[in-house]
Amino acid sequence: MQILHFDIKSQNILRDENFKPKISNFGLAKLYPVEDSLVRLTRARGAFGYMAPEMLYKNIGGVSYKADVYSFGMLLMEMVSRIKNVHASAEHLSQIYFLTWIYDQFHDEKNIEIQDATEDERTICKKMMIVALWCIQLKPSDRPSMNKVVKMLEGDVECLQVPLMLLQPSVK
Asked: Which domain of life is it from (predicted)?
């Protein structure tokens, strides 16, 4: 069996006595067989700002574990930027849509300010941001698996490529 958590967010990540992260709050979670790639839902689950785009469709239908990958990407972005992804009092109009603002900061090579950070810490933040950009791709099939996310985070930042385009809006 696999589990879809549906509520990956900062409030649901706790640390044990050794500061190892532990996921909590399985109230929205759903178990499903490993051989099934999708789980059927009748309504959206999760917290606004962390929900994958496919969770917001009127007829949700099938959702995969990639919805949790998206939520994890949003969590990584919050950690690096130190900005809540639902930001009501944005200083700049572009900050209202968190994903666009983050991508613009990264794409324009404007470093998100990290005061008193060492070069190693800046490299780690860059790696986290690249991984986050992969996790929040619009199409679930473009998002990495969580196993791949772990490998990306443990690997060398020079081996990571930034996704060419974060979101591909369709005009119909």
From this structure: Eukaryota
The catalytic position among 7, 36, 120, 156 is: 7
**Alpha helical stretches, state H, 86-138:** 98-107, 119-135
> What dotted CATH number matches 50-159?
1.10.510.10
Task: Name the amino acid, one letter, at 20.
Answer: K
**Integer distance in angstroms from the first to the last C-alpha of the chain?**
39
| Residue 7 annotated as catalytic | yes
Confidence check: pLDDT of 144 > 80: yes
Burial 9-28 (b: 16+ CB within 10 A, else e): beebeeeeeeeeeeeeeeee
User: What average pLDDT does the segment 63-85 reach?
Assistant: 84
Domain boundaries along the sequence of the chain: 50-159
